[in-house]
Amino acid sequence: MASGIFAANVGAPEGPVAMPDGSMFVTEMSNSTLNVTHLSPSGERRVVKNTQGRPNGLAIDGDGLLWVAEAGLRALLCIDQDGREIKRLEGDDRHGRFCFPNDLVFGPDGQLYMTDSGMAMADFLDGQDFAAGYMDFAWDGSVYQIDPKTLRIVRLLDSKIRFANGIAFGTDNALYANASFTGDIYRYDLFGSASPARDLFGNVLQPDDHTGFKGPDGMKFGADGRLYCSVYGQQNVTVLDSRGNVAERMQLDGPCPTNLCFARSGTKILVTEVFKGQVEWLDVPCAGAALFYPKTL
Question: Greatest CA span in the chain, whole angstroms?
């Protein structure tokens, strides 16, 4: 399997978004950066916006606007590619304030779906690391459906997830989200049920004697219907087949991958990795599944 480094010296990257010209956008979560950043096809950096919070997940719409799950600001931001803020949502009266917006994806219905890990950053982090005893905290991870035009929370799809993290739409148009602390991947039949239940689809953790934290992070579907999931602390992208079984594990250079996206042409994935501060690329057997780019203005 061919692989390499797309960009180095990136500050704890996350939220990769591939562009048609071979460039990409990422977020930089390190305390010294806190940026939404553009990477040229040769890996050169241009800061789009310093959010001054902790930008995490990232998505792009049909107007070319960037949507940012801003964990530090506890907000969903919409910015243009020059860094101007267009919209902001911090929660609502019914559901309360967001805690830790983590990742987001546009659906085939033009709606925006976002995970919230379930606790404000100051309550579970000690510096850049988890605080002692974090597994026993009262986590209330959520999955939200948001109308990006009206900036209204349409519904709370799920709650009480133990650190809700990655989110993606499958080739079956179902929504998938994961729980970092358990390794579970959940499936939601959004368009087949008025009240979609959480169904266990699979688990990406491998049995070993690893003592540090590991768990699923960002994920995307390939056109082959398989789910490609970056597993933090496991140094791989774990691939689940259409039945949720582990099909393969793709080894990475860095130990702590946070997210991935498919290149817009060819058959490559681009993986953000925070320990070495880099974006890696790997050849894969297929292109990415179709993504959705609705107009939101």
Answer: 50
- Amino acid making up residue 238: T
- Establish if 74 belongs to a structural domain: yes
243-297 pLDDT, tens digit each: 999 999 999 999 999 999 999 999 999 999 999 999 999 999 999 999 999 999 9
- Whether 189 is covered by a domain: the verdict is yes
Instruction: Sort strands 75-79 and 85-89 into parallel, antiparallel or unpaired.
Output: antiparallel
| 295 is a domain residue | no
Range of the domain at 202: 3-283
Structure tokens at 248: 């393969």
Give 93's contacts (C-beta < 8 A, 6+ positions apart): none
Q: Give the N- to C-terminal CA distance of the chain in Å, as an integer.
A: 41
Confidence of residue 176 (pLDDT cuts 50, 70, 90): very high
How does DSSP classify residue 122? H
Question: In Å, how far are 18, 78, 89, 120 from 59, measured between CA atoms?
Answer: 10, 9, 15, 22
């988890």: which residue's tokens? 130
Q: How many domains is the chain partitioned into structurally?
A: 1
- Which of the four pLDDT bands, split at 50, 70 and 90, describes residue 192? confident
User: How far, in Å, CA of 241 to CA of 243, rounded?
Assistant: 5
CATH, residue 227: 2.120.10.30
